Amino acid sequence: MEKALRILRDTFGYERFRHPQEEIVRTLLEGDDALVLMPTGGGKSLCYQLPALARPGCGVVISPLIALMQDQVAALRQLGVRAAFLNSTLAPAEARETEQALLAGGLDLLYIAPERLLTERTLALLERAPLALFAIDEAHCVSQWGHDFRPEYRQLEVLHRRWPGVPRIALTATADARTRREIVEQLGLQHARQFVSSFDRPNIRYTITDGGNARERLWRFLEREHPNDAGIVYCLSRKKVEETARWLQSRGRVALPYHAGLPAAEREANQQRFLREEGVIVVATIAFGMGIDKPDVRFVAHLNLPKSIEAYYQETGRAGRDGLPADAWMAYGLQDVILLRQMADESDADEQHKRVTRHKLEAMLGLCELTSCRRQALLAYFGETMEAPCGNCDNCLSPPATWDATEAARKALSCVYRTGQRFGVNYLIEVLRGKEDERIRRFGHHRLTVHGIGKELQAAEWRTLFRQLIARGYLEVDHEGHGSLRLTERSRPLLWGEEKLELRRRQRPQPVKRARATPRPEIGEFDAADAALFESLRALRMELARAQGVPPYIIFSDATLREMVVVQPRTLEEMRSITGVGEHKLAHYGQRFLEVIAGIQVPLERSKQT
Ligand code: ADP
Ligand code: ZN
User: Fold this and answer.
1) The dihedral of CA 515, 305, 267, 112: what is its sign?
2) Which ligand ends up closest to the CA of 386?
3) Which of 63, 52, 183, 59 is nearest to 117 (CA)?
4) Is residue 545 part of a domain?
């Protein structure tokens, strides 16, 4: 373990292990197997990278994400680690070179795609090399029930049979109890020690907003919180992706579209710019994200309602992997609720599948309409209890006002009933507000008792009320796609005055200024001088990254740059104490960064801008 600590400090530049890294490392160093469940950003990679360095031989990492391997290897080489990968993107000559390095004992870590690993040729190659461990990344890919199922993962048991003496570690960020059992069974990990971390992501602030004009609200959010930051905006349709990207561009942001309908080359180019430049926004359908390892995504915004809490948690989880404050922001409205309800009812799937889909949507809507802590509800959904409210979600920071909506809801439900359960929201609101046009006269609805009984609320307020009634199951949307509303069993007691209804108010108080639950100096707000220094350090990082064709965050993370701003080291010795500055980076970059901090050097990128 002493050796492990030395590697942690000298190679990675970290002062201490994060819980439970130390126990996991110890397990592997003792030659035992481990199964690690840790949320995104928890620090999984260190759990196998460090033991691979501490044990004799090469660590073999199996990962399905070929697109990521290159950057992972580049990041390790920045640390001075001898790393390489084997996958289909390599030319035969390059692959041979890597194989020879492996056999000569010249590699610490080798990343391999599962289909490549399982070829007899590769297996035979590995038998001739000294091996430190096997790491099976994204281990949930073994599950037939998940979205990321990879059939080859089911054959990885071969590793255990052919190398019984080499310890194995399986890692994932997405595993419920069932998936965990599958991983254990399929990979033969019955004797592995299990490390299950809390799935909370305390640095992510959850905000869910409702009401009209989602785009303008998104813009205000970006202006206020993330004027220069990189982030992802998720939309449901390709058309909305392209419109939104153009709209953000027209307002001066670098915003790039990403969806399955774009030519592969354009998708790839947009993804590369997102990874390699600073402050780029990707507007995407859910096709974007799997395999995005960018640690400094500062916000994930949803302009549509996700289909389930699982999807919401996975997508928002791409924010803030580096542990610095990040936002999960969402806007949703009546149309989302109607559309998703219809999709859940209409799909070709069998009844059982439909029931599950509907159930998941209910849970998602419940989260949206919630008036208490969102994080408590999210964690509870995944079977975790959190004792106190989190203090870092919209409901905690500015508790929503509620109102007694019983009377208004009864009016709305009566209106649905009296007009024959054949009309959509817009028409119902016109009747409630007493409009008398040709259509209303034709149906004779101007003579109904409900006509004009709802003038006390604005049309927008009625829309909110209808959305909440649909979300809570008091009304259902027709299956034919006309959007007409019908009463449900649930609505009777409310209609007959046997039940009261409290709803969240539409107009919410202004969001309070970011108050952090646990203020940490390295992530606090900067004053103008510090902000300028931070930008200069970022510019130098960009210059160095460009020169080597790598993403800037693998030179130094934002967290490391922030610590430099706070500590302002003056010597290499002081620089060495900064988190994320190991020996290799100190030798290569230390001097340049010291000069910027001392104000001696102006980075190229910055002098170009000014
Ligand atoms: P995961 O793979 O679980 O999503 P990573 O391995 O990418 O997470 O780690 C997330 C971030 O945490 C990275 O920026 C990494 O450098 C940092 N990190 C990991 N372990 C430590 C540690 N012991 N001390 C400081 N930072 C750490
Ligand atoms: Zn909360």
Assistant:
1) positive
2) 2
3) 63
4) yes
The count of structural domains within the chain is 4
Residue 72 belongs to a domain: yes
Q: Whose atoms come closest to the Cα of 19: which ligand?
A: 1
Q: Which residue minimizes the CA distance to atom 23 of ligand 1?
A: 17
Q: What is the pLDDT of residue 79?
A: 97
Q: 125 and 140 share a domain? A: yes
Is the same domain home to 231 and 133? no
> How confident is the prediction for the chain on average, in pLDDT?
90
Residue 510 lies in a domain: no
Please give the pLDDT value at position 175.
66
Mutate to test the pocket of ligand 1, among 7, 10, 12, 24 (most ligand atoms within 8 A of CB): 12
Whether 546 and 592 share a structural domain: yes
Q: What is the pLDDT of residue 212?
A: 74
Q: Are residues 393 and 407 in the same domain?
A: no
> Which sign does the torsion angle of CA 174, 195, 581, 535 carry?
positive
Residue ending a domain, choose from 133, 166, 196: 196
Q: Near ion ligand 2, which residues have CB within 5 Å?
A: 373, 375, 389-390, 393, 396
Position 515 pLDDT exceeds 50: no
Full-model pTM: 0.83
Does any ligand 1 atom lie closer than 6 A to the CB of residue 20? Answer: no
Instruction: Please indicate, yes or no, if residue 513 is contained in any of the structural domains.
Output: no
Cis peptide before 114 (omega within 30 of 0): no
Please give the backbone phi and psi of residue 203, each rounded to the nearest 5 degrees, phi first: -80, -10
Cβ distance 8 to 45 under 8 Å?
Answer: no
Q: Angle of helix 406-418 relative to helix 425-432, nearest 10 degrees?
A: 110
Asked if pLDDT for residue 509 goes beyond 50, the answer is no
Quick one: which of 265, 269, 306, 302 has its CA closest to 284?
A: 302
**Atom 20 of ligand 1, residue of closest alpha carbon:** 43
From 8, 24, 321, 556, mutation site for ligand 1 pocket: most ligand atoms within 8 A of C-beta: 321
Same structural domain for residues 250 and 188?
Answer: no
Domain match, 40 and 129 both: yes
Side chain identity at 419, as an amino acid letter?
Answer: T
Q: Provide the residue range defining the domain that includes 297.
A: 204-397
Average pLDDT, stretch 191-201? 93
State the closest ligand 1 atom to the C-alpha of 16, by its place in the atom list counted from 1.
23
Amino acid at 109: L
Task: Choose the final residue of a domain: 378, 397, 416.
Answer: 397
SS3 402: strand
